[in-house]
Input
Amino acid sequence: MRALYLLLGDPVAHSRSPAIHARAFSLLGVDAVYAPSRVTDVPRAIDSLRALGVAGANVTIPHKEAVLPLLDRVDEAARRIGAVNCIVNRGGELHGFNTDREGILRALGPFSGQAAVLGAGGSARAAVDALKPRVVLIAGRRRTDALAASIGVKVAGREALRSADLVVNCTPVGMSDDQLPVAPESVRGAILDLVYAGPRGETALVRAGRARGLRVIDGLSVLVHQAIASLEIWLGRPRLDELYAPLREAALA
Output
């Protein structure tokens, strides 16, 4: 019987994940489909995963935190982060994981500098957990102080961007337009943008960073790496990193 995997979020129409996972299932010889599902009622959606026997799901904006208490079991890292973006159905029990953290680490590679994170949602939580202890949250959103207190990091003003070795954009700014979450001239280090947009997946922040000669990691890189980490959990297959190049091509097709 063909397995069903879903993407739960709002919005989901823009997502490249269906193309990524369709290509992955084809390459791996797995009889499965992956479909986007716009969700406004999170508890009902989680109940539907159980009722329909859905094999697994990814969770995207804005539901990564809301799904956590609705699951049967939650991985230690996901519970520590306070956000779930990967669900697997194991014999009727829904288990939650956070592969955003792994996607960030794999896309970034070795890093030991000071990082500054923009945002206060589930992705920001994953980024902070991945980059601790040398990380600060940049003030500017109402939830920043509460998030910093809950995960034990400092809050800094935007002047900290100039001294950071890495700036991570975990806000949705740039997803649907050319707005910038931060002035590019205020950044001297590398840029990791979790947002992707346009035919090439390049946001205005990514383009501006490249124009200034900075090291830039775009949102598609993180998306593909976290997708691979999700596949490893769903299928019980470790280290599928060799899929990265063809899955990125699928995301850009």
Notes: The radius of gyration is 18 Å.
